[in-house]
Automatic annotation (TrEMBL):
Annotated signal sequence range: none
Location relative to the cell: Cell inner membrane
A Gene Ontology term for the protein's cellular component: plasma membrane
Topology class, membrane: Multi-pass membrane protein
This protein's name: Paraquat-inducible protein A
Length: 427
C-alpha cells in the first residue's frame, strides 16, 4: 500500500465517496471513518482472527441445535400443531409453494450457514488452493447482504401476535438457540474487517510506481488522481487497469451502466409492486370458509384487533419502505445524472438509509412462511401463501439488486468536479 509522509499511515480509498484517506495505525477497538461521508473504512479488533471464528462457530452450533427440536407450537380447541425449522420449507414444498420454500432455504438457512463456515475456513487459514481461498472470500462478502436470519426472527415475533388471536402459542426448545444463532452470526460479520481480511490473504498490490505523478495524496478523490478502488478486495488500482491482481475481479473506475441497470430493475419492481398489493398474499381457511388477505387488509385487521405496534411495523416494512425505497432510488438516479442540484451529503444519507432498510421488507414474507407451516389443522383452520406473497418477495429482491447496482460514488462526482476546479484555480 502506498504511504504518505507519515511512516505509519496507509492510504485507503473510500468505497462510498472515492476520497483517498490516510489511516494511521489504529489501537485496538478503534475504527477509521471517511472524513467526507463518515463511512467506516477499517477497524482494528482485538483478536481479529479468533473473534470472528468464535462467533461463527458458536452460530453454527446454535443453528444445529435449533434444527433438532420443535421451534414453536400452537393449540386450538385441543388440536396441537408444532413445527421445527426444517419443516417450514418442507411443508411449503409439499403444498406446491416451492418459490416461498426456496426463499426461506436460501435467505434464512443456507446463506447464513455458508457464510459462517467461510469465515471459519478463511480466518483460521485452513489449507486450500489460493484460487479457492480468493473465490470463497469474494462470495462471502457478496452474500453478507442476503443473510436474513434476524429478519426471519422478527417475522416470527410478528406472527405470534397474529396467532394469539386464534389459539395458544408456545415456544419450543429450539427458539432460544435460534435467537442466539441470529446474535452470533451478526456479531461474526461485525468483527470481520474487510480491509484487514484481504491483507491477511495477500498484501495489496503497489500502485504508486504505476502513476505519472508517482505519489498519491490523501484528501483528494481517487478518480482525480487516476486510481480506482477494487470493490471486492479494497485494493487501490490504476483507473485504467481492468482486473485486480489480488482477487482477479474485473472492474472500472465507476460501475458500467450503473444507472441503466438500476432503472431497469426499478421499473420492473414498480410493475410487480402494483399486483403484489392488489392480489392476496395469504389465504385463511377456517370452518370451510376461505378468507383472502392482502397486505393492507392484514394491517387493518391487526389495527382493529388492538395490535397497534405490530400493525405499524407491518405497514412501514411492507408498504411504506418499498414505496419510499423506489422513490429514493429514482431520486438518486436522477441526481446522479446531473439533473438534480441536491448536495452530495444529503444524497449519500438517502442512499445509506435505502441500503439499511431495504431487506427488512421481507419480514411480511417470513410471517406468511411461519403461519403457513404452523397453521395446518384441516377444516378447523389452515393458512396458505398466495400469489401476492411471491410477487412481493420479488419486489423486495429486485429493489435490493437495484440499490446494489447503483454506484454511490456517482452522487459525489459533482463535488469531485468542483474540487478539481478549485485546485486548478489555486494553482
Amino acid at each position: 500500500m502506498c504511504s504518505n509522509n507519515h511512516q505509519h499511515e496507509q492510504l485507503v480509498l473510500c468505497h462510498q465517496c472515492d476520497m483517498l484517506v490516510a489511516v494511521p495505525d489504529l489501537t485496538q477497538g478503534k475504527k477509521a471513518v471517511c472524513p467526507r461521508c463518515s463511512t467506516v473504512l477499517t477497524a482494528k479488533w482485538q483478536e481479529p482472527r479468533n473473534q470472528p471464528t468464535g462467533y461463527a462457530a458458536s452460530a453454527l452450533v446454535m443453528l444445529f441445535l435449533a434444527c433438532l427440536f420443535p421451534f414453536i407450537s400452537m393449540s386450538v380447541a385441543g388440536i396441537v400443531s408444532e413445527i421445527t425449522l426444517p419443516q417450514i420449507p418442507k411443508v411449503m414444498f409439499s403444498e406446491d409453494y416451492s418459490s416461498m420454500a426456496v426463499f426461506f432455504l436460501i435467505f434464512v438457512q443456507l446463506v447464513p450457514a455458508f457464510c459462517m463456515v467461510a469465515i471459519i475456513l478463511l480466518c483460521q487459514h485452513v489449507k486450500m488452493a489460493r484460487r479457492l481461498k480468493i473465490e470463497l472470500a469474494r462470495i462471502l462478502f457478496k452474500m453478507k447482504t442476503w443473510c436474513m436470519a434476524e429478519i426471519f426472527l422478527a417475522g416470527v415475533l410478528v406472527s405470534f401476535v397474529k396467532l394469539m388471536a386464534y389459539g395458544e402459542i408456545s415456544l419450543g426448545l429450539s427458539f432460544l438457540p435460534y435467537c442466539l444463532f441470529c446474535l452470533f452470526q451478526v456479531r461474526a460479520f461485525q468483527c470481520l474487517d474487510r480491509h484487514w481480511f484481504w491483507n491477511e490473504i495477500e498484501p495489496a498490490p503497489e500502485v504508486c510506481h504505476l502513476l505519472p505523478a508517482g505519489k498519491l495524496q490523501a484528501g483528494k478523490p481517487g478518480l482525480i488522481q487516476g486510481v480506482r478502488l477494487c470493490q471486492c478486495c479494497t485494493a487501490i488500482l490504476p483507473a485504467e487497469q481492468p482486473s485486480c491482481p489480488r482477487c482477479h475481479t474485473k472492474g472500472y473506475a465507476r460501475r458500467r451502466h450503473s444507472l441503466q441497470l438500476t432503472m431497469a430493475l426499478l421499473i420492473t419492481s414498480v410493475i410487480l409492486y402494483i399486483p403484489a398489493n392488489i392480489l392476496p398474499i395469504m389465504v385463511t381457511q377456517a370452518l370451510g370458509s376461505h378468507i383472502n388477505s392482502t397486505i393492507l387488509e392484514g394491517v387493518i385487521l391487526l389495527w382493529s384487533s388492538g395490535s397497534y405496534p405490530v400493525a405499524m411495523v407491518i405497514f412501514i416494512a411492507s408498504i411504506m419502505v418499498p414505496l419510499l425505497k423506489m422513490l429514493a432510488i429514482s431520486w438518486l438516479c436522477w441526481d446522479a445524472k446531473k439533473q438534480g442540484s441536491s448536495e452530495s451529503e444529503k444524497m449519500h444519507f438517502i442512499y445509506e438509509i435505502v441500503e439499511f432498510v431495504g431487506r427488512w421488507s421481507m419480514i411480511d414474507v417470513f410471517v406468511i412462511a411461519v403461519l403457513s407451516a404452523l397453521v395446518r389443522m384441516g377444516q378447523l383452520m389452515s393458512i396458505y401463501p398466495a400469489t401476492g406473497a411471491i410477487l412481493f418477495a420479488l419486489v423486495v429482491i429486485l429493489t435490493m439488486f437495484a440499490s446494489m447496482t447503483f454506484d454511490p460514488r456517482l452522487t459525489w462526482d459533482k463535488a469531485n468536479s468542483k474540487f478539481a476546479l478549485n485546485k486548478n484555480e489555486e494553482s
